[in-house]
């Protein structure tokens, strides 16, 4: 189901709801039901997990109906949440933080990370030909591609902070971090530095390396991945129970992808995403092993540091990380993996 179709379907229902009604809702503490009530339906924006479910057969274990939505990334997911057209989405660390700053109450309900995040980063900093940047300390005075409200933008701020710099020490150039916008901005010298991820890392150096394009490692964690849902969905006991079941299967799907790299390359990266085998193998190596921790203590600590940094650099009011985690789900994903072993 496309985003446009989902939003059209939900439009009249969304207009009939008061915007304030969702904002005023307090975090639910009711225990999660052990069984999903008959007739429960979830609309899920998690295309990668959808494919993993289909390949692994985990979709056959669902006890409720799932309407899969072809939605990914913070901006699309938040838009669909506001239209009451989506129940859960899969994103990185930043969207839930900014959603709550923008009067969209959401909670993280599942979390995974990379076993070796420094060796397997999601992003590397691309350096434009001739920019003479060898390390993060060389960022001072440079033009850096920046996408506020997204993981790439936050990584820029964290990298500056790591070497004692702030946004005042550089020129942040706001550009959307979609597709190959950043590699092209680097190649055309519109910016000196940009965080690039996925196959764009490999392609950037392959295409522009002969002209002097280089990469800089940041040495920071950039690997958080979350499932998150609006508060009004979590307040519905039937949907909350369905989300718990989905989280358990999501964790098992994560493990299945790690254990079946060749099939994932063939069916997902090549078959669905249309990548070359070289690009697909590069992504498998880049990702490494994904893990689902059984405690959110360290996760919350890092998340709080991110909230505080963004508040300081972008002029927002900081808040407690507890506002954006639904603790009822802390053990749900990891417990599913323990049972499957």
Give a verbal description of the structure.
The protein is of the alpha/beta class and 341 residues long. It has two domains: 230 residues, Periplasmic binding protein-like II (D-Maltodextrin-Binding Protein, domain 2), CATH 3.40.190.10; 94 residues, Periplasmic binding protein-like II (D-Maltodextrin-Binding Protein, domain 2, 3-Layer(aba) Sandwich). It contains 14 helices and eleven strands. The strands form three sheets. A six-stranded mixed beta sheet has the order 2-1-3-10-4-11, with helices on both faces. A three-stranded antiparallel beta sheet has the order 8-5-9, sandwiched between helices. Strand 6, helix 6 and strand 7 form a beta-alpha-beta unit. Helix 6 crosses helix 13. About 6% of the residues have low confidence.
Uncertain spans = 6-25
Structural class: alpha/beta
Work out the helicity level.
Answer: 40-55%
- What general outline do the C-alpha atoms trace? globular
End-to-end span in angstroms?
34 Å
Classify the oligomer: single chain
Largest sheet data: 6 strands, mixed
CATH architectural group of the largest domain: 3-Layer(aba) Sandwich
CATH topology of the largest domain: D-Maltodextrin-Binding Protein, domain 2
The CATH class label of the largest domain is Alpha Beta
What is the averaged pLDDT score? Answer: 92
Total beta-strand segments: 11
Instruction: Say which CATH homologous superfamily of the largest domain is assigned.
Output: Periplasmic binding protein-like II
Rg, alpha carbons: 20 Å
Helix-strand topology string? HHEHEHEHEEEHEHEHEEHHHHEHH
Strand % is 5-15%
Number of helices: 14
Order of strands across the biggest sheet? Answer: 2-1-3-10-4-11
How many structural domains are formed by the residues?
2
